[in-house]
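User: quick one, sequence for these tokens?
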């Protein structure tokens, strides 16, 4: 479907600008030609249909071309989280079994460490602007020398992408999406935003997240224009929106807070912005009120979803009229998005009625195929097309979704999912730690922060700085505890020997309307 969308864009708007990245601008005709040549070059390097292709890079036009070229020859794209530690990258690279890896300037050092640790990985294709690193292949040279290859579109049910998310068992899980599920998510967002016919979309959130990629796919489907910034900064986003008349973007609440708090923030910079989507974590009433004041002409749309559902689930449009700030539904996650069915189920799999709390399940064409190489976890997460989200909540009589707590043991910090088991596994190897439990606690900036409750061995001690230093080589920076709590007594256990996380969280969340932030 994406091959057809790319081809259509060149056919109907060949002379229109497809991408803006720094000083580079390319039309759709140029973009499709580069895509076909890069696909031909990848095949010449030995890539074949269904091969997994890694991308380790910041946002850019070349990132988009690498994905498009992978689909052009029938491959599977595997975006890599640039915030992860080497150990996490090695696990996912070996788990997915990909060899070719696209890499940019910012990730040369990481690529070098990967190559040293796993010589079987590669070739590494350099798509940066600096000098070509030794042992790597030039992205631009591949396009210049490559021969256009015929497109081989994926069938609807074929695997198109693997998107890694945190793992409840201590390792990342590869969420498998088909061509259909990726397309369905993009279509859902295009219908929800109702943006301009040929929208200008700013990639401000990282492209390894499906939240951004879903909007990217919708932009390509509309033959719109992709505008790129390498990563979020308040000044960079403001400047890009102002200079390129950006009409749609997606941000997480933490980014929005940083934007509004910037000393250089000027609402006039956002005059062209028609739609601002946000999600990844709930937003406070205070920040929402400031958003309304700062962007009076912009439609604000809050989304609830996850990697397993192609970032789709529910949507809460906010145009300043549909829901008053004092309406309790303002604090909901909205109603089912286009093409999505929401349900609340108990532990036995029975559907529950209005205002009865249970696990939130999501069903629609945007649902994942399953977890790569993990049939047991796939079976546990899918039932008759329903995706078990691991979040607890209820639906009111009008279908508004209220998220109350988490069934699965996870922290959402700054829009990033952090599974407690991953952090606990890293901490458990510290010689001073006898017991550890990791929970999420409220944080004004990040929504939640990773908090470790530690029982040291008798006579031993460990500081926050030592904990952080111990974790750094093992897990991504955003997963490392930001605060610790030392206890002399053993952690409370259930009758079956499990740590009572609910009891540990109670003093931190006392007085909160919900146990997630």
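Assistant:
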């Amino acid at each position: 479907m994406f091959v057809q969308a790319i081809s259509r864009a060149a056919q109907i708007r060949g002379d229109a600008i497809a991408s803006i990245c720094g000083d580079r601008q390319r039309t759709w005709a140029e973009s499709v030609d580069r895509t076909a040549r890069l696909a031909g070059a990848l095949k010449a390097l030995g890539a074949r249909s269904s091969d997994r292709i890694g991308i380790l890079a910041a946002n850019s036009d070349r990132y988009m071309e690498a994905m498009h070229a992978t689909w052009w020859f029938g491959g599977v794209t595997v975006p890599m989280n640039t915030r992860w530690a080497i150990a996490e990258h090695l696990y996912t690279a070996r788990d997915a079994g990909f060899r070719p890896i696209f890499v940019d300037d910012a990730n040369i050092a990481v690529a070098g460490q990967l190559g040293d640790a796993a010589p079987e990985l590669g070739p590494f294709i350099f798509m940066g602007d600096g000098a070509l690193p030794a042992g790597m292949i030039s992205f631009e040279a591949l396009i210049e020398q490559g021969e256009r290859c015929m497109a081989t579109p994926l069938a609807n049910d074929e695997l198109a992408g693997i998107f890694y998310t945190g793992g409840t068992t201590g390792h990342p899980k590869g969420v498998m999406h088909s061509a259909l599920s990726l397309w369905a998510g993009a279509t859902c967002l295009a219908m929800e935003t109702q943006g301009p016919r040929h929208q200008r979309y700013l990639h401000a959130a990282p492209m390894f997240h499906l939240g951004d990629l879903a909007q990217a796919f919708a932009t390509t489907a509309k033959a719109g224009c992709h505008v790129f910034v390498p990563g979020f900064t308040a000044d960079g986003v403001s400047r890009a929106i102002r200079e390129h008349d950006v009409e749609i973007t997606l941000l997480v609440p933490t980014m929005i807070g940083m934007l509004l708090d910037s000393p250089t923030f000027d609402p006039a910079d956002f005059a062209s912005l028609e739609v601002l989507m946000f999600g990844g974590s709930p937003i406070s009433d205070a920040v929402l009120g400031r958003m309304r004041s700062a962007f009076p002409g912009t439609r604000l749309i809050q989304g609830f979803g996850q990697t397993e559902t192609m970032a789709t689930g529910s949507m809460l449009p906010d145009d300043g009229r549909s829901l008053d700030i004092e309406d309790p539904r303002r604090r909901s996650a909205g109603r089912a998005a286009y093409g999505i069915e929401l349900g609340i189920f108990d532990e036995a799999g029975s559907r529950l009625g209005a205002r009865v709390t249970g696990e939130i399940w999501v069903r629609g064409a945007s649902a994942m195929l399953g977890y790569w190489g993990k049939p047991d976890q796939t079976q546990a997460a899918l039932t008759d097309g329903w995706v078990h989200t691991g979040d607890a909540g209820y639906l009111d009589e009008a279908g508004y979704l209220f998220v109350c707590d988490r069934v699965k043991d996870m922290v959402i910090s700054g829009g990033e999912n952090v599974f407690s088991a991953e952090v606990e596994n890293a901490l458990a190897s510290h010689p001073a730690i006898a017991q550890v439990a990791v929970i999420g606690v409220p944080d004004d900036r990040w929504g939640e922060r990773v908090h470790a409750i530690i029982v040291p061995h008798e006579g031993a001690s460990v500081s926050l700085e030592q904990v952080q230093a111990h974790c750094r080589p093992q897990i991504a920076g955003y997963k490392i505890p930001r605060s610790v709590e030392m206890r002399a007594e053993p952690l409370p256990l259930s009758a079956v020997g499990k740590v009572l996380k609910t009891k540990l969280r109670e003093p931190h969340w006392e007085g909160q309307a919900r146990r997630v932030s």
